[in-house]
Amino acid sequence: MRRGARSGVVVLAAVLGLAASSCGNGVIDKSTDGVPPAEATGTLRVLIPSFPPSNKGREEFDKVVEDFKKTYPKMKVEPDFATYGNLNEKISTSIAAGIPYDVMVTGVGWVQTFASKRLFADLGPYGVTPEVIQDKSIGAMVPAATYDGKLYAYPIVADARAVALRVSAFKEAGLDPDRPPKNMTELKAAAEKLTKRDANGTITRSGFDLAAPTSFRQTYTTLLASTGTPLYLDGQPNYSNAKGVETLEWIKSMINNVQVYGQRNAAQQPLVYTGEAAMGITGGAVDCSDKGIGQANCDDLRFFRFDSGKEVQFVGGDLASIGSRARHKDAGWAFIQSLTKPSSVDAIAKLNKKIPAYKDAANSPQAKSNPLSKFVASGLELAIYEGGSANWLEMRGNFDTQLTQAVLGQKDPAKTLANLSGQSR
Amino acid sequence: MTSATVTGPIAGSKAPGLRVGRVLLYVALCLGALVMITPFVWMVLTAFKSDLEIAKFSWLPGELRWRNFVEAMQTAPFLRYFRNSLFIAIGETAFTLAVCTTAGYALAKLPIRGSKALLSYFILLLLVPFQIILVPLFLIVKSIPLFGGNNILGQGGIGWLNSWWGLIIPLGAAPLFTFLARQFYVSLPNELAQAARVDGLGEFGIFWRIMTPLIKPALITICVFQIEAAWNAFLWPLMITTSDEMRPLQLGLAIFAQNPAEVQWPYLMAGTALATLPMIVMFIFAQKRFVEGMANVGIKG
User: Fold this and answer.
1) What is the tally of structural domains in chain B?
2) Which ipTM was obtained for this model?
3) Rounded to two decimals, what is the model's pTM?
């Protein structure tokens, strides 16, 4: 018993020692707003999925910090390299715990939702206006960064989508690859001609890859916008109408006609890259080296955009915001300025294969690195984006599910869109 | 005599049926094994492929690209991630053994009023998804008094966030393992404890020196389950850490899928294959306990 008691005392002492040793770390900072930058101290908390936490990503992030420290030499920067898949949980837990991030990098679709919940600060006091973004960045991204007439985010990089065709497939089908089909009627006619089937009628090569095996949200948004009908107009749903139904009916008419529902390859890459589809939606970059799809495949691709009356290009991207409850808002803005310098943006673009969101993106190193990036960089001003309502983040999963049900004939397209429109706030 | 006359014809009539049944059983088991092993085979084969080979369906890589493994490991400090995962797995398992065995013993052997209700509560907890308790757990961990700059009321600092404590303790006391330990303790005869009491041993002594050594298989089972769970943890470490110094292997692997549109499959699969190795080795050595544990949770009590 005595031995047991002695062991108990030793364990207790060890626990108390460890508890004591852990005290005093991690005290939440006092605000540095209004303090001269050279005198400000504390830790700037940055939530940033734009830099992968690889050695290279870390090295590039350190350069941004180095630049920031020229203005705020005494401040520490604590990055949280979260993934896009877990941004919501990271932000909500930090808010709930009362230790909000000072700078948050999110995507198109996040900004309006979080701004409506007053989690982001208005960037107006820092001189960010639509004209500034128009002048220095991508003007077409202003709506995605705006809520209730105020700007809440600054674009860093854009993640664009284009459409590609296989020259060899077009020539084989007697179509002219230099005159790509752009509106929905032409696209459907060409896709049907390009679809290959075996003796049993099974599709062996898709005529058009919708790049949406189970999610038609972005494809629908782009096609609808190409008719001159944006998904949301002044924050109000704009798809429960004739154009909206027509677009959804078009997607429905393509599935299992020119492409089997759910088709995707193991790499989850656009099927047009490998010839599994003759046409299809692509991302914003393609690796033409032997490590990627190879030069021969690249040479067989031509890029174009949807145009059923209005030429558009779907664009997502990374945008930087300041937390409304941040303790270092001024420092946060200084950090965003360092983050959006061309050298930093170029590095982020290269790491993520996205397009820099600065004015001359078409001449950026990323745009010059491959033909697809060059193409999408030249069309950034034609950007359209998904979202537009304050509850888009909550809605988009449901949007996907219901569009899929309509496409598969389980629900009436008009009723589906009316229902979705009713859920929008 | 009787048995001889009875068993003769029965054995004779059952033998072909048994053989057919056994063949069918083995076919079903082989198919099941094939279904289970295919993703692992696919993972290993993918780890050797190029991007183009992954985009086009093929089982075998054109060339064994061992450099995928080297390049994947050079992308980030994976040695540190391995070390962190190991530390978390060992720490969590040690804590689980301490907490869950004592709780399991109490539920099984101590005359606690309402112990059945308590047991039902533990069983009910098994049904609660982790996502439901994520935010409350985060708030509790952030509000641990006297840690991370917190005062005695748990305010003013970050508590166990961004600390080994936060990584190890909250997921250590799992209801599953308490239930599992309880199931094993229940199977031990009470006479052993009574004899020890007659010899003057206290309750903790009975637990520690008499009963617990008899449930070694259960301890091994808990170890195997908990190491596996800790090794594969992703969401909780991601939530409570910001510092890369403490992040485990699973978060390290997420580097290759940072941009969902540009997943680096060869590197991701190479890294995953290496990360899976310790678990496969552990399963090979402890598969009997693994299965035994499942059986005990399911059928005893």
Assistant:
1) 1
2) 0.72
3) 0.81
